[in-house]
Amino acid sequence: MSTTTRRIPLYEADFASDPHTAYRRMREKFGPLVPVDLAPGVPATLVVGYEQARRILGDPMRFPADPRAWQKTIPDTCPVLPMMEWRPNALRSAGTEHNRYRNANTAALDAVDQHALRFLVEKVAHETVSSFHHDGKADLLAQYAWPIAFRMLSTLLGCPDQLGHRIADGMAKIFDGVNATIGNQILTQTVADLIALRRHQPGNDVTTRLLSHLTRLDDTEMIHQIITLYGAGIEPLTKLITNTLLRLLTHTDFSGDLHAADASIREALDTVLYRDPPLANFCMSYPPRPVDVDGILLPADQPVVISLAACNNDPALGTSPTLGNRAHLAWGAGPHSCPARSHAYLIAETAIHHILDALPEMDLACHPGDLIWRPGPFHRSLSTLPVLFPTTH
């Protein structure tokens, strides 16, 4: 891939407003491997071909997730660095270290009681709707999806609200790439406070189970496990709920009856995970040597980013049933696939079902074309999701 090729910026508002048109143009010009900039002066290759993505995600030897060599070339002020930098966690490690972190996280998450989790989501969703159901209007992102994601993650991790709010603030700054360095500092210090609390006051929560796991994670490793869980939890889960609600409100194949059956909600969730997954471009890897992929030489120590959204919608799949069985890439694939997909799915489905039951006559409060999508190279995220509904007394 020529170094003189003009790269496609993924951080601008134009890309955020209509990414699928951008993906189509990328394919027409470059094929399945696209030269992009994740931030000004931060080059990467964006994979928009489904088959190429599958091969890369399943080849951790040639495409390891460890960014440390790349990171040496990036200034500390780079806005995407906190999202991509090396951390001692499963997401940014390879080999035996990856297995060590993955095993600890999987064990801590697998111990979550799914029945208790569903009950808790229903309780939180009821309390959240109760806070605005007399108003006749709401922003379902700020007033519904985000509070549910925040409270669920905080409860699962045994995090008091005062610490949780600080963690969420730091995480939002990192995802947006605005004040990301400050966000990283807030996040690291607050998570350290949470870990210290759970060392002295153990509970029935993921943090306590990580602390007691046989891998014997040290304080630094613990900080980065919790940061990863929050990063994979609050922001993407908020976006999954809001993107699915938008789909239900605006598409005739779903919106004819907002008393949607469970099957319709599951179908809407899968449609969003296929079409507009919350993490649209992610699953970064960093080949330590130049790698030939279908005749294109990818440079060493430069990020390779999988466009989960573009790959799921790759025209090369044609009418293949590959994605019909939920084999889309929204949860990733290979050794770094999401270990909490069943938890996220349960929370999102329960939250959506509850609000459709509670406010069956709600409508979008603006034209869909007037909604604003937040810029950023990684996520697919609305700024707001305003709705109107009849007041209840």
What does this structure look like?
This protein is α+β, with helices and mostly antiparallel strands. The protein has one domain: Cytochrome p450 (Orthogonal Bundle), CATH 1.10.630.10. The chain has 16 helices and ten strands. Strands 1-2-3-8-5 form a five-stranded mixed beta sheet. It is globular. Residues 320-325 have low confidence and may be disordered.
Number of E strands: 10
**Would you give the CATH topology?**
Cytochrome p450
Largest sheet: 5 strands, mixed
Q: Which parts are unreliable, with pLDDT below 50 for 5 consecutive residues or more?
A: 320-325
Strand coverage percent: 5-15%
* Alpha-carbon Rg, integer: 21 Å
User: Could you state the CATH homologous superfamily?
Assistant: Cytochrome P450
Overall average residue pLDDT: 89
- Number of H- or I-type helical stretches: 16
Distance between the termini: 63 Å
- Count of all domains: 1
Helix % is 40-55%
Report the order of strands and helices: EHHEEHHHHHEHHHHHHHEEEEHHEE
Second-tier CATH architecture = Orthogonal Bundle
* Overall geometric form: globular
Describe the structure in brief.
The protein has 393 residues and is an alpha+beta fold. The protein has 16 helices and ten strands.
Name its key features.
single chain; 393 residues; alpha+beta; five-stranded mixed beta sheet
